[in-house]
Amino acid sequence: MTILGLILLPVLLLILRQNLVLILFSVAAYIHLFFGDGVLEYIIEDMWIGLDKEILLSIPLFILCGNVMTRGRIAERLIRVVAIVSSPLPGGLAVATILSCAVFSAISGSSAVTLLSVGAVMYPALVKAGYDKKFALGALASGGTLGVVIPPSIPLILFGIVTETSITDLFKAGVVPGLILTGIMAVYALYRNRSIPRQRIDFRELAACLRDGIWSLLMPVLLLGGIYSGYFSPTEAAAVALGYALIVEIFIHRDMQAQDFYGIAISTAKLLGALYPLLAVAMSLNLLLTAEQVPQDLTNWVASQVESPLTFLLAINLLLLIVGCFLDINAGILILAPILLPLALNFGIDPVHLGIIMVVNLEVGFLTPPIGINLMISMTAFNERFKLICQSVIPFIAIILVVVALVTYFPRLSLFLTT
Amino acid sequence: ETKLKYATSAPVKTPWVAHANQVAAAVQEATGGSVKIDVFPGSQLGNEQDVIRQVARGRVQMGAFSNTAASLIVPEISLLAAPYIWDNVAQADCALDNHMDAVFQDRFKEMDLVFLGWTEVGQMGYASAKPIESLTELSGKKVRVAPSKTSSLTAESVGANSVMLPITEVASALQTGLVDSADLPGLAFTSLGIGKIAPHWIATNHSHQVGVVLMSRKVWSKLTPEEQTQMQAARVDPTILRKQVRGAEKMMFGKFEEAGGRIVHPEGEELDRWKQAGEQARLALVKELGDKGAAVYEQIQQAKRACSS
Amino acid sequence: MTVIAYAVTALSLLADILGRELFSQGIDGAPRFAVYAAIIAGFLGMSLAAEDDSHIRPQVFDYLVPPLFEKMFSRLADAVSALIYGGLGYLAVGFVRVTYENGDIAPVLDWPIWPVQLVLPYTFFSISLRYLVITVAPSLKRPDTSLGREIR
Ligand code: NA
Ligand code: NA
């Protein structure tokens, strides 16, 4: 009976046209009432506990920074340099698209920001240069997902928060899988566009672009260099990135004015206004499940069903692929990481490795319907048909799946840079 | 039957979780099964700073907490971890068991908590990746401190540049050089494998860390008087855990040295320098804690006198 | 207010880093301070998001309502939202009251936490009030813009 109510309540609220946040709150309240201790104030308490975390600071700051870079022209200047450098390759602009996504990923923590920033410049350029529209869409939608694998990465930060794993280690572990993904995607871009003629590098233009883009190029160096040489922690890197982006856009490039920050902060606040309650409710449900020993029971059950770590990893892969179809990567991490962690530890899998498996695996979810965020963004940003975009990402999904397998079964790819 | 959730941040297969399980078993036996305790190790119910507040609110029934977490509720308890506050470990054990026990029972009671006993975490020292072997060398360096006043005041008293970091970030921070050194409990340093990154350890033993087992007073008052008496009687002798922790500390440092780690034991004048700096930090801490802090500090001094005679 | 809160978040972190790396003296409570600023900004953002209806709203069952009753139903939906947000506000008051009574202090900063937590009931009640107003006076409602808000 109570289970039935758990299903009927969200349906009723959907009919009553309530927003997702309120539906989640109501479901949490229902669970607290009928499965927990019956004290509804705990929802608010969990919400507070969930948000009162220093590591969480990096999320609003990275989103702010991403919005600053999209408003200004840091991305555009960066891409111009990459495009000239790749021009002597056949299909140079295609390769440049992938590389730009990778370089931009090293300063952005999210997939959407990477896709939007690179896409805004590259999509018109690719179409104008005669590249296949389908390829261009696929490359951008998929290249954008590098944003969550190559550090800094918001999903990796979330994984670190909910599993209490070192975020610096997670970031380090993301580097090699990110580079492998970039490499394979770039090779595919080269092969697919091999008929498009090469161009000579115009060195005078290159010099001009470098002069123009030097501050943009320095940004990934500053961020990753700063983290790995100990000037600041990954959380602090977000503040540094934001500070740097603002100074460059306002005082050096003068592509933005100080008062623009107002609008950017407001739009960031609205995005987070939607993300924060989701985060809070997810954390609350996690705690409730743990207190009711659901993950513990699940661990014991799985441990009794699955014998080898290999079968377990395969099961994780399949689970995450299915989950990725329906859930946003952040929600997927928040809900599943705490449940999978004890299972993984049971099979001797390193928490850092699990984090990378989860992120690369859920990365596919950006590109799969029904809820594929990058598909939706591409549809609105490039004004193309949903079906065309879905088809365009198929070869890239295949590439990511290959990397999922590599990352899952060769832990050293993720772990050899960490301790 | 009453079911109680017992939270601890200690990871499974450590002496602390073994201690929690002993407490659970002893209570279950003493109450004839009418009170059952489920242990949630490894911060499963949240990090200890959050959980200790939930115990005060009655949501989580009980748990074991470090000095850092406990001082969020009763700030004066940070004095127990103040640098060089005890002359030796035996004095500390005696003072805690025979004198400070009652003091903190009262203080926790005011905060809606029932104090059920001490736990042992061990001695603190400084770890570093590059050789840092004396107070002078540590001075001016970036040092990780725990999120507590005691830890930061202590590091600042030797002239270090304190950087507050959670324990999960310590290994990476030492590796990247975000910090040059880290203030850590010896057993955490060795058992978390930080020794591989930071093979230098100064055994300053500047702080003796003890934790507390606490229970929610709201939950406690719902138990029958017999159950309350039975639970009090089931308190696990703190000397068992102390012995285990100190034994493990010694063994793990042995392994650390075997693997090429280097331990410096400050002696003579060098030790005096550490102690002088520690005294400064201690007085600063007492000052920050106000009247209640001064009162507890005085009680500690009395306990020390009683335990050294 | 939201903008100031974000500026404070970033500036306090940057000041801590610069102090530590350049002047060998970080600011102990800076990250804590930044966390509270970010929480305030996040909650104010929640009410901003509610103000222009930009919270994600699944519209799967919208077709169930016959066009004739559309206006009435939309008012009912707003009334329910007002009610739920009001309930959250009520719970938040209880939560802040316990924090106040227990005298919970912020780690490191040693400040009482409850003033910061006031942003919770404030946010919930102000959103609730807004829904109440448009239930009574639907003409004040802005056009629905919740389409395509999944973008993050
Ligand atoms: Na990234
Ligand atoms: Na998907």
TrEMBL record, chain A:
Chief location: membrane
Coiled coil: none
Superkingdom of the source species: Bacteria
Membrane association type: Multi-pass membrane protein
Ranges that cross the membrane: 56-74, 94-123, 135-158, 170-191, 212-231, 237-252, 264-289, 309-327, 332-349, 355-376, 388-410
Residues covered by the TRAP C4-dicarboxylate transport system permease DctM subunit domain: 11-412
Alphabetical keyword list: Cell inner membrane, Cell membrane, Membrane, Transmembrane, Transmembrane helix, Transport
Pfam families hit by this protein: DctM
Intracellular or extracellular location(s): Cell inner membrane
Family of this protein: Belongs to the TRAP transporter large permease family.
Subunit structure: The complex comprises the extracytoplasmic solute receptor protein and the two transmembrane proteins.
Function recorded in the entry: Part of the tripartite ATP-independent periplasmic (TRAP) transport system.
Protein name: TRAP transporter large permease protein
Name of the encoding gene: dctM_4
From TrEMBL, chain C:
Transmembrane intervals: 79-100, 112-133
InterPro entries recorded: DctQ (IPR055348)
Keywords: Cell inner membrane, Cell membrane, Membrane, Transmembrane, Transmembrane helix, Transport
Cited Pfam families: DctQ (PF04290)
Residue span, Tripartite ATP-independent periplasmic transporters DctQ component domain: 11-134
Subcellular location: Cell inner membrane; Cell membrane
Topological category with respect to the lipid bilayer: Multi-pass membrane protein
Similarity comment: family membership: Belongs to the TRAP transporter small permease family.
The protein's assembly and partners: The complex comprises the extracytoplasmic solute receptor protein and the two transmembrane proteins.
Purpose of the protein: Part of the tripartite ATP-independent periplasmic (TRAP) transport system.
Protein name per its UniProtKB record: TRAP transporter small permease protein
